[in-house]
Automatic annotation (TrEMBL):
<keyword id="KW-0813">Transport</keyword>
<keyword id="KW-1133">Transmembrane helix</keyword>
<feature type="transmembrane region" description="Helical">
    <location>
        <begin position="118"/>
        <end position="142"/>
    </location>
</feature>
<dbReference type="GO" id="GO:0032964">
    <property type="term" value="P:collagen biosynthetic process"/>
</dbReference>
<keyword id="KW-0472">Membrane</keyword>
<keyword id="KW-0812">Transmembrane</keyword>
<dbReference type="GO" id="GO:0006616">
    <property type="term" value="P:SRP-dependent cotranslational protein targeting to membrane, translocation"/>
</dbReference>
<dbReference type="InterPro" id="IPR016447">
    <property type="entry name" value="Translocation_assoc_membrane"/>
</dbReference>
<dbReference type="Pfam" id="PF03798">
    <property type="entry name" value="TRAM_LAG1_CLN8"/>
</dbReference>
<feature type="transmembrane region" description="Helical">
    <location>
        <begin position="245"/>
        <end position="269"/>
    </location>
</feature>
<dbReference type="InterPro" id="IPR006634">
    <property type="entry name" value="TLC-dom"/>
</dbReference>
<dbReference type="GO" id="GO:0005789">
    <property type="term" value="C:endoplasmic reticulum membrane"/>
</dbReference>
<feature type="transmembrane region" description="Helical">
    <location>
        <begin position="78"/>
        <end position="97"/>
    </location>
</feature>
<feature type="transmembrane region" description="Helical">
    <location>
        <begin position="162"/>
        <end position="180"/>
    </location>
</feature>
<feature type="transmembrane region" description="Helical">
    <location>
        <begin position="289"/>
        <end position="311"/>
    </location>
</feature>
<keyword id="KW-0653">Protein transport</keyword>
<comment type="similarity">
    <text>Belongs to the TRAM family.</text>
</comment>
Amino acid sequence: MAFRRRTKSYPLFSQEFVIHNHADIGFCLVLCVLIGLMFEVTAKTAFLFILPQYNVSMPTADGETVHYRYGPKDLVTVLFYIFIAVILHAVVQEYILDKISKRLHLSKVKHSKFNESGQLVVFHLSSVIWCFYVVVTEGYLTNPRSLWEDYPHVYLPFQVKFFYLCQLAYWLHALPELYFQKVRKEEIPRQLQYICLYLVHIAGAYLLNLSRLGLVLLLLQYSTEFLFHTARLCHFADENNEKLFNAWAAVFGVTRLFILTLAVLAIGFGLARVDNQAFDPEKGNFNTLLCRLCVLLLVCAAQAWLMWRFIHSQLRHWREYWSEQSAKRRVPAAPRLAARLIKRESGYHENGVVKAENGASTRTKKLKSP
């Protein structure tokens, strides 16, 4: 991050220079956009990066409310918040995770997983709080019918659209972070899988105007992921701590069931009963049988894949556990050495020589020949 001390200097714009200074470069770009707000000539362009676009004033009983729809200009806003995410990533890494990892003395493999879980714990916790606040204030929990009623949900409140833009920015920033953090080649495919899954689901809910359903599903998913990464951090601190992993294992299966049930209820039954069923991209309406089947297939396939990975990892963990237990049972007990009976000579020892009771030596004296 900016203003930190460095022990090495790298050639300008070299690979190592970009890796070690990517957060500072992002900070300079963000600062340039913020400075643009100070001048009338560049203020309009700067607002394009910072604020969501495509606002529409809609009349209500209390007056007018401002709602937003999506468009191509959202890519510019997402780009700006990608740099914000890069800066926050570097702050969390340097001022929190690096200080903790130095005290734990982890290996390279565990150190990489510790950094990954530490970053995701911060992100998932903030996202769960933010998402829960949006869902409660918008009334999606108290009125589940609102998840599919009045579809398509083209016009979004500010906090809903801003939440989706920030989510897309975070998961897009995670792609270059694989290079900046020098993630091991063995870990890159696994991380790319869940990054792409999040991007596909979040972008799909945003573009198909299923933002309300997407918020509730993200709340369930992020809550489970927060518990998992918290359990992994606690395991790095204390390897005998398995309580949070057991709690996560119980919550994981229940969460898959809730997500599948809610998706089938909202998409399979709720949208199927909506009167407006036509394919009209200009009006944001994708409520056709083919679109509903594709969305349901994607959600069910993702949940089945996550459940299969979970079962596979649990079976592997159990096999390792029972193999360790059987190995401990096979180890024979060490035979006890027979106690050696030490015959002590009469008298006492003095300077390594046994003395008699009367102070004379116990050694036999040689007789001199006459």
